[in-house]
Amino acid sequence: MDAKRWDEMYRGRERVFSGNPNGVLVAETVDLSPGRALDVGCGEGADALWLARRGWRVEAVDVSEVALRRAAGGDGDGRVTWVRADVTAVPPRVGAFDLVSVQYFPLRRGPGHAALRGLLDAVAPGGTLLFATHAPVDLVADGKGFDPADYYQPDDVARLLDPGWDVLINETRPRDAATPAGTHHTRDSVLRAVRVS
Question: Which parts of the sequence belong to the Methyltransferase domain (predicted)?
Answer without folding.
Answer: 38-127
